[in-house]
Structure formats: C-alpha cells, structure tokens
Specification:
Elements (H helix, E strand, L loop, with lengths): L1 E5 L2 E4 L4 E8 L6 E8 L6 E6 L6 E3 L7 E6 L4 E6 L8 E9 L11 E2 L3 E6 L1
Parallel strand pairs: 2-11
Antiparallel strand pairs: 1-3, 3-8, 4-5, 4-9, 5-6, 7-8, 9-10, 9-11
C-alpha cells in the first residue's frame, strides 16, 4: 500500500491542524494505521494508532486528550486531528500501515508515507 501524508504547516501554540494520510494500491481497510513523528535531533516516536476497523485506538501519553486519530475506509484515508498544539509537537509527522492490528513500535509497520512537517510557534 502506498501512503501520502499531508496537512502539515505552521501554526501558533494552542492552534489546531488536521493531517491526512491517503492510501492507494491495496485494500486500505485491511491495514491498521499509525502516526509517528520525529522532532529536531530526536528519535522517531509513536503518536497514535487505529485498528483496521477503527474500533480501537491508542495514543502516546504526550498527545492523549489533544490528538484524535480516525479513518474513513470508504475514502482510503486516515486522519490525525491535532488540537491545543504545543511547540514540543514540532516534528515531521509520518503515517504508517501494517496488517489489521495496531502497534506502537515503528519497526512493526510495513508501509510508510513521506512525512509532513508540523511547526508550532510559541
């Protein structure tokens, strides 16, 4: 499956952004979707994930209550709604896919999008 992340940009602290992850090539509905991010000088870290049906989600503690992951299998698209953004959320955000069940470790994802930059100014 090919993934294309979009929706990043520059936003002030406290603002919101919605990232999208458009999928093509295989049945998107058979894949769990994860979002990861890599900030300047940092390791890539898990942000959120959702199962193939959308019935279960999981979030990193750092974004819980502020970010919401969702998907629309009919549109082959996943989303990450980000609210109450903080400067420490500044990073390149990547979407990734793996069969069916969600995981929080990047090595367990098979397919990756190219990343979209999110910059939060203070």
């Amino acid at each position: 499956v090919q993934l294309q992340a979009s929706g990043g940009g520059l936003v002030q602290a406290g603002g919101s952004l919605r990232l999208s992850c458009a999928a093509s090539g295989r049945t998107f509905g058979n894949y769990a979707l994860g979002w990861f991010r890599q900030g300047p000088g940092k390791e890539r870290e898990f942000v959120a994930a959702i199962t193939w049906t959308g019935s279960s989600t999981y979030y990193a503690d750092s974004v819980k209550g502020r970010f919401t992951i969702s998907r629309d299998n009919a549109k082959n698209t996943g989303y990450l709604q980000m609210s109450s953004l903080k400067p420490e959320d500044t990073a390149v955000y990547y979407c990734a896919a793996r069969p069916f069940t969600l995981r929080t470790v990047d090595k367990e994802y098979d397919y990756w999008g190219q990343g979209t930059q999110v910059t939060v100014s203070s």
